[in-house]
Amino acid sequence: MGEAAEATTLYHHHHRNRNHESEYDRNQRLEVDLYPLSNYYFGAKHSIPFKDETLADRFSRMKSNYAARGIRNCVEAVILVELFKHPHLLLLQVKNSFFKLPGGRLRPGESDIDGLRRKLVRKLSVNEDDNGTEWEVGECLGMWWRAEFETLLYPYLPPNVRKPKECTKLFLVKLPESRKFIVPKNLKLLAVPLCQIHENQKRYGQVISAVPQLLSKFSFNMIES
Question: What mean pLDDT is predicted for residues 190-206?
Answer without folding.
Answer: 96
